Amino acid sequence: MRYLHTMVRVNNLEASLDFYCNKLGLSEIRRMESEAGRFTLVYLAAPDDTHQAREHDAPLLELTYNWDSEEYTGGRNFGHLAFEVDDIYAVCQRLMEQGVTINRPPRDGWMAFIRSPDQISIELLQKGAALPAQEPWTSMVNTGVW
Q1: Burial track 84-113 (b if 16+ CB lie within 10 A, e otherwise)
Q2: Residue at 18 is within a domain
Q3: With a threshold of 0.85, does the pTM exceed it?
Q4: What is the mean pLDDT of the chain?
Q5: DSSP alpha helices (H): ranges in 39-87?
């Protein structure tokens, strides 16, 4: 397992980039915009991690800017922790056997979500390409929120 990123939601992308980049000294590594999803993702790296981050080899801070305004309460601005795993199906199976609820099953062979005992959302991402879809995951429904 490898730690990938921490996601936080931001209300003002420009103000947040000014804070994280101009004031804290982080560097923008990549950006993704989704017209359909109406959001922008900006990935930032600390100064000492910038080179490694460009090679996808260092943890990042993910700023998520939702184009439609939303008031973030109850810690909703903090999104999730993300970990890359070698076999998402095996990890999810092991977690289920240990009593962990898989809130968003890896139906696509690539992404799943669970929650910590303190309700921190944790994203599990398949290393490399998605695994072929397989049961019971393909038919498993979401449980709760993530």
Answers
A1: bbeebbebbeebeeeeeebbbbbbebbbbb
A2: yes
A3: no
A4: 91
A5: 50-54
For residue 52, the domain's CATH number is 3.10.180.10
Per DSSP, 47 falls in state G
Alpha-carbon gap, residue 113 to 73, rounded angstroms = 21
Could you report the per-residue pLDDT of 58-114, keeping only the tens digit for each? Answer: 899 999 999 998 887 767 778 888 989 999 999 999 999 999 999 999 999 999 999
Q: Which of 22, 11, 109 is nearest to 63 (CA)?
A: 11
Rounded CA-CA distance 138/78 in Å is 28
- Whether residue 47 is contained in a domain is answered as yes
Q: d(Cα 138, Cα 68) in Å, to the nearest integer?
A: 31
Domain range for 7 is: 2-66
Vertex 44 angle, CA 7 and 29, to 5°: 125
Number of domains in the chain: 1
Query: Is 105 among the domain residues?
Result: no
Amino acid at 106: P
> What are the catalytic residues?
123
